[in-house]
TrEMBL record:
This is Regulatory protein zeste. Residues 7-79 form the Myb/SANT-like DNA-binding domain. Involved in transvection phenomena (= synapsis-dependent gene expression), where the synaptic pairing of chromosomes carrying genes with which zeste interacts influences the expression of these genes. Zeste binds to DNA and stimulates transcription from a nearby promoter. It comes from the Eukaryota. Self-associates forming complexes of several hundred monomers. It comes from Petrolisthes cinctipes. It holds the Pfam family Myb_DNA-bind_5.
Amino acid sequence: MERTAPLSQTQRMALLNLIKERDSIVNNKSTAPGIIEAKKRTWEEIVLKFNALNPDQQPRSSKQLKRSYDHVKRKVKDEDREFKKKIKVTGGGCPPTPPKATEEIALAASMMTADLAMGNDVFETFNVEPVHDSSAADVYELQEEGGSSTISSFPITGYETSSMSGTMKNPWDLSFRKEIVYPS
């Protein structure tokens, strides 16, 4: 295969916009047979539309467009990793300013939020998002009473608590869980 000219900025933006319309299929990490076939069909659609948008250029294959998309994703991840590295540097001073994202980087990053949220820690393997729920119960308060702990309220998001007060001798005793009132 003969090497073609790299994609221009406008061509990369067109490619990203075509992918954004089909984001749920293209970026689906499932390996189910139905998803794999849907991805193949979707990439062929993207190739047809991309080549129709650029009739004066040599037609691109799905392999070339996938490689181009992977290159853009790699740039986004590299910038994100460098910024996170700067944040974790010790020594005082002002926090680093976030990198100025081009329109291309911003569009690609908007499709990669789950990928970018991972990796906040060297050993992190999954992403846990903080829950901001006003209906959550108060944080638990432990009070020492002669070697035992009293739980006055327990944080359970989305559930109401009845009487969560009780004294436990063993902090791993979870018998109080049956007092949770589940919403109907």
